[in-house]
Amino acid sequence: MQIAVVERFEEPCHENGSSHGDGRIFRFAYPQAEYVELAQKAKPGWMELQDFYGEDLLLGKGGLDIGYEYGTRIQSVISTLKDLNVPFEVLGPSQMEARFPQFSLRKNVSIISQL
């Protein structure tokens, strides 16, 4: 099995931007269907690599995307996830605060939960 990793900087654990360090996010919550489809196609490969190496590579901790309830971005993400049959849940502020009491949100937000 051959794997190619492409990084802009010489070392993968650099300090030059938001994607530095040894961790990356794997997500499905994009407004663009193309990105979601790429993630859907990539996930089985990551699972295969985990099995091959016997080591956890994707630690499925889930994700929360917070946005204005009727905002274009949050609505686009919800629509794309529905269209591509990606499991998710939409929470309101009170549901979010019940599950995650560390958050205090405005009343006009929606939360996409992929846990």
User: Major sheet, described briefly?
Assistant: 3 strands, antiparallel
Shape: globular
Number of strands: 3
Elements, N to C (H/E): HEHEHE
Calculate Rg over CA atoms. 17 Å
Beta-strand portion reads 5-15%
pLDDT averaged over residues: 86
Strand numbers in spatial order across the main sheet = 1-3-2
Tally of helical segments: 3
Q: How far apart are the first and last residues' alpha carbons, in Å? A: 31 Å
What oligomerization state is this entry in?
single chain
Helical proportion, percent range: 25-40%
Class from helix and strand fractions: alpha+beta
Low-confidence stretches: none
Care to describe what's here?
With 115 residues, this protein is of the alpha+beta class. The chain has 3 helices and 3 strands, in the order αβαβαβ. The chain has helices at residues 33-53, 72-83, 93-99, and strands at 63-68, 89-91, 109-114. It has a 3-stranded antiparallel β-sheet with strand order 1-3-2. The longest helix has 21 residues, at 33-53. The two termini are 31 Å apart.
Label this structure with key terms.
115 residues; alpha+beta; 3-stranded antiparallel beta sheet; 3 helices; 35% helix; globular
Could you give a quick summary of the protein structure above?
This protein has 115 residues and is an alpha+beta fold. The chain has 3 helices and 3 strands; from the N terminus they run H-E-H-E-H-E. Strands 1-3-2 form a 3-stranded antiparallel β-sheet.
